[in-house]
Amino acid sequence: MQNYITDTFKTASENTSHTQTATESVINYIRNLILNRELRIGDKLPTENELCEQLGVGRGSVREAVKRLEAISLLNVRRGDGTYISDVRQNKAFDSLLYKIVLEDIDFQEIVDYRIQLEIGIMQLAIRNVTEDILKELKNNLFQFSQYITNEEQKSPVVLHDLDIQFHNILGKASKNRLLADVYAVSLSLFSPYMLSNYGKGQVQSSPEVTIENHTLLLNALENKDISLATYAVVNSTQLWQKWNDYTSSPFQ
Amino acid sequence: MQNYITDTFKTASENTSHTQTATESVINYIRNLILNRELRIGDKLPTENELCEQLGVGRGSVREAVKRLEAISLLNVRRGDGTYISDVRQNKAFDSLLYKIVLEDIDFQEIVDYRIQLEIGIMQLAIRNVTEDILKELKNNLFQFSQYITNEEQKSPVVLHDLDIQFHNILGKASKNRLLADVYAVSLSLFSPYMLSNYGKGQVQSSPEVTIENHTLLLNALENKDISLATYAVVNSTQLWQKWNDYTSSPFQ
Protein backbone atom coordinates (compact mmCIF):
# COMPACT_ATOMS: atom_id res chain seq x y z
CA MET A 1 0.00 0.00 0.00
CA GLN A 2 0.94 3.64 -0.40
CA ASN A 3 2.81 5.26 2.45
CA TYR A 4 1.01 8.25 3.89
CA ILE A 5 3.37 9.22 6.68
CA THR A 6 5.07 11.95 4.72
CA ASP A 7 1.69 13.32 3.60
CA THR A 8 0.28 13.29 7.10
CA PHE A 9 3.42 14.86 8.44
CA LYS A 10 3.27 17.60 5.81
CA THR A 11 -0.41 18.27 6.46
CA ALA A 12 0.23 18.38 10.18
CA SER A 13 3.19 20.70 9.88
CA GLU A 14 1.48 23.01 7.39
CA ASN A 15 -1.50 23.34 9.70
CA THR A 16 0.58 24.25 12.70
CA SER A 17 3.75 25.74 11.22
CA HIS A 18 3.05 29.10 12.82
CA THR A 19 3.18 27.58 16.30
CA GLN A 20 5.53 24.63 15.83
CA THR A 21 9.21 25.06 16.57
CA ALA A 22 11.88 23.14 14.65
CA THR A 23 12.46 20.94 17.71
CA GLU A 24 8.76 20.11 17.93
CA SER A 25 8.63 19.19 14.27
CA VAL A 26 11.49 16.72 14.79
CA ILE A 27 9.63 15.24 17.77
CA ASN A 28 6.41 14.99 15.72
CA TYR A 29 8.27 13.33 12.89
CA ILE A 30 9.72 10.64 15.18
CA ARG A 31 6.29 10.29 16.84
CA ASN A 32 4.70 9.60 13.45
CA LEU A 33 7.35 7.05 12.52
CA ILE A 34 6.54 5.21 15.75
CA LEU A 35 2.75 5.51 15.37
CA ASN A 36 3.06 4.11 11.86
CA ARG A 37 5.29 1.28 13.05
CA GLU A 38 8.17 2.36 10.84
CA LEU A 39 10.22 2.43 14.02
CA ARG A 40 9.86 -0.31 16.62
CA ILE A 41 11.60 -1.19 19.88
CA GLY A 42 15.32 -1.71 19.27
CA ASP A 43 15.31 0.06 15.89
CA LYS A 44 17.97 2.65 15.08
CA LEU A 45 16.91 6.23 14.42
CA PRO A 46 18.04 7.94 11.19
CA THR A 47 21.34 9.80 11.75
CA GLU A 48 21.47 13.47 12.78
CA ASN A 49 22.48 14.36 9.21
CA GLU A 50 19.60 12.43 7.67
CA LEU A 51 17.05 14.05 10.01
CA CYS A 52 18.43 17.54 9.29
CA GLU A 53 18.18 16.91 5.57
CA GLN A 54 14.75 15.26 5.55
CA LEU A 55 13.14 17.91 7.73
CA GLY A 56 15.12 20.96 6.70
CA VAL A 57 16.03 21.82 10.27
CA GLY A 58 19.33 22.56 12.02
CA ARG A 59 21.51 20.16 13.97
CA GLY A 60 20.68 21.94 17.25
CA SER A 61 16.97 21.22 16.85
CA VAL A 62 17.59 17.54 16.20
CA ARG A 63 19.84 17.31 19.26
CA GLU A 64 17.28 19.05 21.47
CA ALA A 65 14.50 16.73 20.24
CA VAL A 66 16.60 13.64 20.89
CA LYS A 67 17.56 14.96 24.33
CA ARG A 68 13.89 15.41 25.25
CA LEU A 69 12.84 12.00 23.99
CA GLU A 70 15.79 10.47 25.81
CA ALA A 71 14.58 12.13 29.01
CA ILE A 72 11.22 10.41 28.74
CA SER A 73 13.12 7.14 28.20
CA LEU A 74 11.79 6.74 24.67
CA LEU A 75 15.19 6.98 23.03
CA ASN A 76 18.47 5.49 24.10
CA VAL A 77 21.65 7.22 22.87
CA ARG A 78 24.65 4.91 22.57
CA ARG A 79 27.84 6.96 22.18
CA GLY A 80 29.75 6.29 18.99
CA ASP A 81 27.00 3.96 17.76
CA GLY A 82 23.60 5.60 17.31
CA THR A 83 20.24 6.34 18.84
CA TYR A 84 17.75 3.53 19.42
CA ILE A 85 14.09 3.14 20.36
CA SER A 86 14.10 2.01 23.99
CA ASP A 87 12.24 -0.97 25.31
CA VAL A 88 9.50 1.11 26.95
CA ARG A 89 7.96 -2.02 28.44
CA GLN A 90 10.87 -2.11 30.87
CA ASN A 91 10.71 1.57 31.76
CA LYS A 92 8.41 3.10 34.24
CA ALA A 93 6.43 5.36 31.91
CA PHE A 94 6.48 9.05 32.64
CA ASP A 95 2.90 9.89 33.33
CA SER A 96 2.70 13.15 31.45
CA LEU A 97 -1.00 12.66 30.74
CA LEU A 98 -1.50 12.22 34.46
CA TYR A 99 0.40 15.42 35.26
CA LYS A 100 -1.65 17.30 32.70
CA ILE A 101 -4.88 16.03 34.25
CA VAL A 102 -3.87 16.70 37.85
CA LEU A 103 -2.45 20.14 37.21
CA GLU A 104 -5.51 21.20 35.24
CA ASP A 105 -7.45 21.18 38.50
CA ILE A 106 -10.44 19.28 37.21
CA ASP A 107 -13.76 19.30 39.14
CA PHE A 108 -14.36 16.33 41.36
CA GLN A 109 -17.66 15.63 39.55
CA GLU A 110 -15.69 15.19 36.29
CA ILE A 111 -13.39 12.72 38.03
CA VAL A 112 -16.41 10.80 39.36
CA ASP A 113 -18.06 10.59 35.91
CA TYR A 114 -14.77 9.58 34.35
CA ARG A 115 -14.21 6.85 36.92
CA ILE A 116 -17.69 5.40 36.42
CA GLN A 117 -17.30 5.15 32.62
CA LEU A 118 -13.79 3.72 32.90
CA GLU A 119 -14.75 1.08 35.47
CA ILE A 120 -17.84 0.01 33.56
CA GLY A 121 -15.58 -0.51 30.53
CA ILE A 122 -13.14 -2.53 32.64
CA MET A 123 -15.96 -4.66 34.11
CA GLN A 124 -17.51 -5.26 30.67
CA LEU A 125 -14.26 -6.78 29.38
CA ALA A 126 -13.40 -8.46 32.69
CA ILE A 127 -16.74 -10.30 32.65
CA ARG A 128 -15.78 -11.73 29.28
CA ASN A 129 -12.10 -12.44 29.99
CA VAL A 130 -11.56 -13.08 33.70
CA THR A 131 -9.73 -16.30 34.64
CA GLU A 132 -9.90 -18.51 37.72
CA ASP A 133 -6.44 -17.33 38.79
CA ILE A 134 -7.49 -13.70 38.79
CA LEU A 135 -10.71 -14.46 40.68
CA LYS A 136 -8.50 -16.10 43.30
CA GLU A 137 -6.31 -12.97 43.51
CA LEU A 138 -9.39 -10.80 44.03
CA LYS A 139 -10.77 -13.11 46.73
CA ASN A 140 -7.42 -13.14 48.47
CA ASN A 141 -7.29 -9.33 48.46
CA LEU A 142 -10.84 -9.13 49.80
CA PHE A 143 -9.98 -11.60 52.54
CA GLN A 144 -6.92 -9.55 53.62
CA PHE A 145 -9.01 -6.39 53.59
CA SER A 146 -11.73 -7.94 55.78
CA GLN A 147 -9.19 -9.45 58.16
CA TYR A 148 -7.42 -6.13 58.58
CA ILE A 149 -10.67 -4.28 59.25
CA THR A 150 -11.89 -6.89 61.74
CA ASN A 151 -8.68 -7.53 63.64
CA GLU A 152 -6.63 -4.36 63.83
CA GLU A 153 -7.28 -1.87 66.61
CA GLN A 154 -5.62 1.02 64.80
CA LYS A 155 -6.57 0.97 61.13
CA SER A 156 -3.94 2.71 59.05
CA PRO A 157 -5.46 4.66 56.12
CA VAL A 158 -2.30 3.86 54.13
CA VAL A 159 -2.76 0.09 54.47
CA LEU A 160 -6.49 0.30 53.59
CA HIS A 161 -5.70 2.53 50.63
CA ASP A 162 -2.97 0.21 49.32
CA LEU A 163 -5.22 -2.86 49.50
CA ASP A 164 -8.02 -0.94 47.78
CA ILE A 165 -5.77 0.24 44.92
CA GLN A 166 -4.44 -3.31 44.60
CA PHE A 167 -8.00 -4.67 44.23
CA HIS A 168 -8.73 -2.23 41.43
CA ASN A 169 -5.47 -2.94 39.63
CA ILE A 170 -6.36 -6.65 39.66
CA LEU A 171 -9.72 -5.73 38.07
CA GLY A 172 -7.74 -3.89 35.34
CA LYS A 173 -5.68 -7.03 34.77
CA ALA A 174 -8.88 -9.12 34.65
CA SER A 175 -10.00 -7.18 31.55
CA LYS A 176 -7.08 -8.78 29.65
CA ASN A 177 -6.86 -5.52 27.74
CA ARG A 178 -3.48 -3.90 28.22
CA LEU A 179 -4.62 -0.56 26.83
CA LEU A 180 -7.59 -0.17 29.13
CA ALA A 181 -5.64 -1.62 32.07
CA ASP A 182 -2.79 0.88 31.47
CA VAL A 183 -5.19 3.82 31.28
CA TYR A 184 -6.89 2.51 34.43
CA ALA A 185 -3.60 2.15 36.33
CA VAL A 186 -2.60 5.73 35.48
CA SER A 187 -6.08 6.93 36.47
CA LEU A 188 -5.94 5.10 39.80
CA SER A 189 -2.94 7.28 40.69
CA LEU A 190 -5.22 10.22 40.11
CA PHE A 191 -8.00 8.78 42.32
CA SER A 192 -5.55 7.60 44.98
CA PRO A 193 -5.20 10.82 47.05
CA TYR A 194 -9.00 11.05 47.33
CA MET A 195 -9.23 7.43 48.45
CA LEU A 196 -6.47 7.92 51.01
CA SER A 197 -8.10 11.06 52.29
CA ASN A 198 -11.47 9.30 52.70
CA TYR A 199 -9.87 6.54 54.74
CA GLY A 200 -8.24 9.26 56.83
CA LYS A 201 -11.65 10.82 57.46
CA GLY A 202 -12.99 7.52 58.76
CA GLN A 203 -14.78 5.98 55.77
CA VAL A 204 -14.04 2.46 56.93
CA GLN A 205 -14.28 3.01 60.67
CA SER A 206 -17.83 4.32 60.37
CA SER A 207 -19.16 1.69 57.97
CA PRO A 208 -16.70 -1.12 57.29
CA GLU A 209 -19.42 -3.38 55.86
CA VAL A 210 -20.24 -0.93 53.04
CA THR A 211 -16.66 -0.80 51.79
CA ILE A 212 -16.32 -4.56 51.85
CA GLU A 213 -19.76 -5.02 50.28
CA ASN A 214 -18.86 -2.97 47.21
CA HIS A 215 -15.81 -5.07 46.44
CA THR A 216 -17.88 -8.20 47.07
CA LEU A 217 -20.51 -7.01 44.57
CA LEU A 218 -17.82 -6.44 41.91
CA LEU A 219 -16.48 -9.94 42.55
CA ASN A 220 -19.98 -11.46 42.36
CA ALA A 221 -20.65 -9.61 39.10
CA LEU A 222 -17.52 -11.21 37.62
CA GLU A 223 -18.37 -14.69 38.88
CA ASN A 224 -21.95 -14.51 37.58
CA LYS A 225 -21.03 -12.61 34.41
CA ASP A 226 -23.67 -10.06 35.35
CA ILE A 227 -23.09 -6.67 33.73
CA SER A 228 -26.11 -5.06 35.43
CA LEU A 229 -24.77 -5.98 38.84
CA ALA A 230 -21.32 -4.72 37.77
CA THR A 231 -22.79 -1.38 36.71
CA TYR A 232 -24.72 -1.13 39.97
CA ALA A 233 -21.58 -1.91 41.98
CA VAL A 234 -19.45 0.62 40.09
CA VAL A 235 -22.00 3.41 40.52
CA ASN A 236 -22.56 2.45 44.15
CA SER A 237 -18.92 2.44 45.15
CA THR A 238 -18.19 5.62 43.24
CA GLN A 239 -21.05 7.32 45.06
CA LEU A 240 -19.64 6.19 48.40
CA TRP A 241 -16.30 7.64 47.35
CA GLN A 242 -18.00 10.89 46.37
CA LYS A 243 -20.04 11.07 49.58
CA TRP A 244 -16.94 10.87 51.73
CA ASN A 245 -15.14 13.37 49.59
CA ASP A 246 -18.03 15.81 50.00
CA TYR A 247 -17.48 15.99 53.76
CA THR A 248 -14.92 18.62 52.89
CA SER A 249 -14.68 20.48 49.61
CA SER A 250 -11.31 18.95 48.75
CA PRO A 251 -9.13 16.14 50.06
CA PHE A 252 -6.21 18.54 50.11
CA GLN A 253 -6.98 20.70 53.10
CA MET B 1 -6.62 16.27 58.38
CA GLN B 2 -3.42 14.32 58.82
CA ASN B 3 -0.96 14.52 55.99
CA TYR B 4 -0.19 11.12 54.49
CA ILE B 5 2.22 12.07 51.72
CA THR B 6 5.31 11.29 53.71
CA ASP B 7 3.80 7.97 54.83
CA THR B 8 2.81 7.00 51.30
CA PHE B 9 6.20 8.02 50.04
CA LYS B 10 7.93 5.96 52.69
CA THR B 11 5.74 2.93 52.03
CA ALA B 12 6.31 3.27 48.31
CA SER B 13 10.06 3.61 48.64
CA GLU B 14 10.36 0.78 51.16
CA ASN B 15 8.41 -1.51 48.87
CA THR B 16 10.54 -0.78 45.85
CA SER B 17 13.87 0.33 47.32
CA HIS B 18 15.67 -2.62 45.77
CA THR B 19 14.80 -1.43 42.25
CA GLN B 20 14.47 2.31 42.69
CA THR B 21 17.44 4.55 42.00
CA ALA B 22 18.00 7.77 43.92
CA THR B 23 16.96 9.78 40.85
CA GLU B 24 13.71 7.83 40.60
CA SER B 25 12.95 8.41 44.24
CA VAL B 26 13.33 12.16 43.74
CA ILE B 27 10.98 11.96 40.73
CA ASN B 28 8.45 9.94 42.74
CA TYR B 29 8.63 12.40 45.59
CA ILE B 30 7.86 15.35 43.30
CA ARG B 31 5.15 13.26 41.60
CA ASN B 32 3.47 12.64 44.98
CA LEU B 33 3.64 16.32 45.91
CA ILE B 34 1.81 17.11 42.66
CA LEU B 35 -0.72 14.27 42.99
CA ASN B 36 -1.51 15.48 46.50
CA ARG B 37 -1.83 19.07 45.33
CA GLU B 38 0.96 20.26 47.57
CA LEU B 39 2.54 21.65 44.42
CA ARG B 40 0.42 23.40 41.80
CA ILE B 41 1.11 25.23 38.56
CA GLY B 42 3.45 28.18 39.20
CA ASP B 43 4.63 26.89 42.58
CA LYS B 44 8.32 26.83 43.45
CA LEU B 45 10.01 23.51 44.13
CA PRO B 46 11.98 23.03 47.38
CA THR B 47 15.65 23.94 46.85
CA GLU B 48 18.28 21.39 45.87
CA ASN B 49 19.59 21.42 49.46
CA GLU B 50 16.15 20.84 50.94
CA LEU B 51 15.46 17.92 48.59
CA CYS B 52 18.86 16.33 49.33
CA GLU B 53 18.21 16.61 53.05
CA GLN B 54 14.58 15.45 53.03
CA LEU B 55 15.26 12.43 50.83
CA GLY B 56 18.79 11.58 51.90
CA VAL B 57 20.10 11.58 48.34
CA GLY B 58 23.00 13.33 46.63
CA ARG B 59 22.95 16.56 44.69
CA GLY B 60 23.60 14.72 41.41
CA SER B 61 20.40 12.67 41.77
CA VAL B 62 18.31 15.77 42.42
CA ARG B 63 19.82 17.49 39.37
CA GLU B 64 19.20 14.48 37.15
CA ALA B 65 15.57 14.23 38.31
CA VAL B 66 14.96 17.94 37.69
CA LYS B 67 16.60 17.66 34.25
CA ARG B 68 14.27 14.80 33.29
CA LEU B 69 11.14 16.54 34.54
CA GLU B 70 12.25 19.68 32.74
CA ALA B 71 12.55 17.67 29.54
CA ILE B 72 8.92 16.60 29.74
CA SER B 73 8.04 20.27 30.30
CA LEU B 74 6.75 19.64 33.80
CA LEU B 75 9.37 21.80 35.50
CA ASN B 76 10.75 25.14 34.46
CA VAL B 77 14.22 26.07 35.75
CA ARG B 78 14.81 29.81 36.07
CA ARG B 79 18.53 30.49 36.52
CA GLY B 80 19.42 32.32 39.73
CA ASP B 81 15.80 32.10 40.89
CA GLY B 82 14.46 28.57 41.31
CA THR B 83 12.55 25.71 39.74
CA TYR B 84 8.81 26.04 39.13
CA ILE B 85 5.90 23.80 38.14
CA SER B 86 5.16 24.64 34.48
CA ASP B 87 1.77 25.52 33.15
CA VAL B 88 1.23 22.14 31.48
CA ARG B 89 -2.06 23.33 29.99
CA GLN B 90 0.01 25.44 27.58
CA ASN B 91 2.40 22.65 26.65
CA LYS B 92 1.70 19.94 24.18
CA ALA B 93 1.77 16.93 26.49
CA PHE B 94 4.34 14.29 25.79
CA ASP B 95 2.36 11.21 25.03
CA SER B 96 4.45 8.72 26.91
CA LEU B 97 1.43 6.53 27.60
CA LEU B 98 0.77 6.50 23.88
CA TYR B 99 4.35 5.47 23.09
CA LYS B 100 4.16 2.70 25.64
CA ILE B 101 0.95 1.40 24.09
CA VAL B 102 2.14 1.60 20.50
CA LEU B 103 5.53 0.08 21.16
CA GLU B 104 4.06 -2.81 23.12
CA ASP B 105 2.70 -4.16 19.83
CA ILE B 106 -0.76 -4.85 21.09
CA ASP B 107 -3.12 -7.16 19.13
CA PHE B 108 -5.61 -5.44 16.89
CA GLN B 109 -8.45 -7.22 18.72
CA GLU B 110 -7.35 -5.55 21.96
CA ILE B 111 -7.41 -2.16 20.24
CA VAL B 112 -10.92 -2.88 18.91
CA ASP B 113 -12.24 -3.88 22.36
CA TYR B 114 -10.57 -0.86 23.92
CA ARG B 115 -12.07 1.50 21.34
CA ILE B 116 -15.58 0.12 21.87
CA GLN B 117 -15.47 0.57 25.65
CA LEU B 118 -13.92 4.04 25.37
CA GLU B 119 -16.46 5.28 22.81
CA ILE B 120 -19.43 3.88 24.73
CA GLY B 121 -18.15 5.84 27.77
CA ILE B 122 -17.82 8.99 25.64
CA MET B 123 -21.32 8.56 24.18
CA GLN B 124 -22.84 7.91 27.62
CA LEU B 125 -21.55 11.25 28.92
CA ALA B 126 -22.12 13.07 25.61
CA ILE B 127 -25.80 12.06 25.65
CA ARG B 128 -26.09 13.77 29.03
CA ASN B 129 -23.95 16.82 28.31
CA VAL B 130 -24.00 17.65 24.59
CA THR B 131 -24.95 21.24 23.66
CA GLU B 132 -26.62 22.71 20.55
CA ASP B 133 -23.30 24.27 19.49
CA ILE B 134 -21.54 20.94 19.49
CA LEU B 135 -24.39 19.23 17.62
CA LYS B 136 -23.93 21.95 14.98
CA GLU B 137 -20.20 21.23 14.78
CA LEU B 138 -20.91 17.53 14.27
CA LYS B 139 -23.50 18.24 11.57
CA ASN B 140 -21.12 20.59 9.83
CA ASN B 141 -18.39 17.96 9.83
CA LEU B 142 -20.80 15.32 8.48
CA PHE B 143 -21.91 17.71 5.74
CA GLN B 144 -18.30 18.37 4.68
CA PHE B 145 -17.58 14.65 4.69
CA SER B 146 -20.63 13.87 2.50
CA GLN B 147 -19.88 16.73 0.11
CA TYR B 148 -16.30 15.57 -0.29
CA ILE B 149 -17.32 11.98 -0.99
CA THR B 150 -20.02 13.01 -3.46
CA ASN B 151 -18.18 15.71 -5.38
CA GLU B 152 -14.50 14.82 -5.57
CA GLU B 153 -13.27 12.56 -8.34
CA GLN B 154 -10.06 11.64 -6.54
CA LYS B 155 -10.74 11.06 -2.87
CA SER B 156 -7.63 11.65 -0.78
CA PRO B 157 -7.34 9.20 2.14
CA VAL B 158 -5.63 11.97 4.13
CA VAL B 159 -8.60 14.36 3.81
CA LEU B 160 -11.11 11.61 4.69
CA HIS B 161 -8.99 10.55 7.65
CA ASP B 162 -8.64 14.12 8.97
CA LEU B 163 -12.41 14.75 8.78
CA ASP B 164 -13.07 11.41 10.49
CA ILE B 165 -10.63 12.14 13.34
CA GLN B 166 -12.13 15.61 13.68
CA PHE B 167 -15.64 14.09 14.06
CA HIS B 168 -14.46 11.84 16.85
CA ASN B 169 -12.61 14.62 18.65
CA ILE B 170 -15.83 16.66 18.62
CA LEU B 171 -17.59 13.66 20.23
CA GLY B 172 -14.88 13.74 22.93
CA LYS B 173 -15.58 17.42 23.51
CA ALA B 174 -19.33 16.68 23.65
CA SER B 175 -18.77 14.51 26.74
CA LYS B 176 -17.78 17.69 28.63
CA ASN B 177 -15.37 15.51 30.55
CA ARG B 178 -11.80 16.70 30.06
CA LEU B 179 -10.30 13.50 31.44
CA LEU B 180 -12.16 11.15 29.15
CA ALA B 181 -11.76 13.56 26.21
CA ASP B 182 -7.98 13.73 26.81
CA VAL B 183 -7.66 9.96 26.98
CA TYR B 184 -9.81 9.71 23.84
CA ALA B 185 -7.69 12.27 21.95
CA VAL B 186 -4.50 10.37 22.80
CA SER B 187 -6.18 7.10 21.81
CA LEU B 188 -7.35 8.51 18.47
CA SER B 189 -3.68 9.04 17.59
CA LEU B 190 -3.29 5.34 18.15
CA PHE B 191 -6.28 4.44 15.95
CA SER B 192 -5.34 7.00 13.31
CA PRO B 193 -2.87 4.94 11.22
CA TYR B 194 -5.44 2.13 10.93
CA MET B 195 -8.11 4.58 9.82
CA LEU B 196 -5.80 6.16 7.27
CA SER B 197 -4.78 2.77 5.98
CA ASN B 198 -8.44 1.68 5.55
CA TYR B 199 -9.20 4.79 3.52
CA GLY B 200 -6.13 3.98 1.42
CA LYS B 201 -7.50 0.49 0.79
CA GLY B 202 -10.76 1.94 -0.51
CA GLN B 203 -13.10 1.75 2.48
CA VAL B 204 -15.04 4.81 1.34
CA GLN B 205 -14.85 4.27 -2.40
CA SER B 206 -16.50 0.85 -2.14
CA SER B 207 -19.27 1.80 0.29
CA PRO B 208 -19.47 5.53 0.98
CA GLU B 209 -22.98 5.26 2.42
CA VAL B 210 -21.86 2.93 5.23
CA THR B 211 -19.19 5.31 6.46
CA ILE B 212 -21.58 8.26 6.43
CA GLU B 213 -24.34 6.18 8.01
CA ASN B 214 -22.25 5.32 11.07
CA HIS B 215 -21.53 8.95 11.85
CA THR B 216 -25.19 9.77 11.23
CA LEU B 217 -26.25 7.07 13.73
CA LEU B 218 -23.92 8.54 16.38
CA LEU B 219 -25.39 11.98 15.75
CA ASN B 220 -28.97 10.64 15.95
CA ALA B 221 -28.15 8.84 19.20
CA LEU B 222 -27.02 12.17 20.69
CA GLU B 223 -30.05 14.07 19.44
CA ASN B 224 -32.49 11.45 20.73
CA LYS B 225 -30.49 10.73 23.91
CA ASP B 226 -30.61 7.06 22.96
CA ILE B 227 -27.83 5.02 24.58
CA SER B 228 -28.89 1.76 22.88
CA LEU B 229 -28.57 3.37 19.46
CA ALA B 230 -25.23 4.86 20.53
CA THR B 231 -23.96 1.42 21.58
CA TYR B 232 -25.17 -0.09 18.31
CA ALA B 233 -23.47 2.67 16.30
CA VAL B 234 -20.17 2.33 18.19
CA VAL B 235 -20.06 -1.45 17.75
CA ASN B 236 -21.14 -1.15 14.13
CA SER B 237 -18.53 1.41 13.12
CA THR B 238 -15.78 -0.38 15.04
CA GLN B 239 -16.67 -3.59 13.20
CA LEU B 240 -16.44 -1.78 9.84
CA TRP B 241 -13.03 -0.50 10.89
CA GLN B 242 -12.00 -4.01 11.88
CA LYS B 243 -13.35 -5.56 8.67
CA TRP B 244 -11.25 -3.26 6.50
CA ASN B 245 -8.23 -3.78 8.65
CA ASP B 246 -8.59 -7.55 8.24
CA TYR B 247 -8.06 -7.30 4.46
CA THR B 248 -4.40 -7.37 5.36
CA SER B 249 -2.97 -8.54 8.64
CA SER B 250 -1.62 -5.09 9.50
CA PRO B 251 -1.96 -1.57 8.16
CA PHE B 252 1.80 -1.25 8.16
CA GLN B 253 2.80 -3.32 5.16
The best one-word shape of chain A is: elongated
- SS-based structural class of chain A? mainly alpha
Largest interface, C-beta closer than 8 angstroms, per-chain residues: A-B, 77 and 76 residues
CATH class of the largest domain in chain A: Mainly Alpha
The strands making up the biggest β-sheet of chain A line up spatially as 1-2
Oligomer: homodimer
Whole-number count of domains of chain A: 2
Determine the N-to-C terminus distance of chain A: 57 Å
Q: What order do the helices and strands come in, and which of them pair?
A:
The structure is a homodimer of 253-residue chains.
Chain A: H1 5-16, H2 22-35, H3 48-55, H4 59-71, E1 75-78, E2 82-85, H5 96-103, H6 108-129, H7 132-151, H8 157-174, H9 178-201, H10 203-206, H11 208-223, H12 227-245
Antiparallel strand pairs in A: 1-2
Helix pairs in contact in A: 2-4, 6-8, 6-9, 6-12, 7-8, 7-11, 8-9, 11-12
Would you write up a description of this structure?
Chain A is mainly alpha-helical and 253 residues long. Chain A folds into two domains: 2-90, Arc Repressor Mutant, subunit A (Orthogonal Bundle); 93-244, GntR ligand-binding domain-like (Four Helix Bundle (Hemerythrin (Met), subunit A), Up-down Bundle), CATH 1.20.120. Helices cover 70% and strands 3% of the residues of chain A. The first copy, chain A, has twelve helices and two strands. Chain A has helices spanning 5-16, 22-35, 48-55, 59-71, 96-103, 108-129, 132-151, 157-174, 178-201, 203-206, 208-223, 227-245, and strands spanning 75-78, 82-85. The first copy, chain A, has a two-stranded antiparallel ribbon with strand order 1-2. In chain A, helix 6 (108-129) packs across helix 9. The longest helix of chain A has 24 residues, at 178-201. Chain A is elongated. The termini of chain A are far apart. The relative contact order of chain A is 0.09. At the A-B interface, helix 1, helix 2, helix 4, helix 5 and helix 6 of A face helix 1, helix 2, helix 4, helix 5 and helix 6 of B.
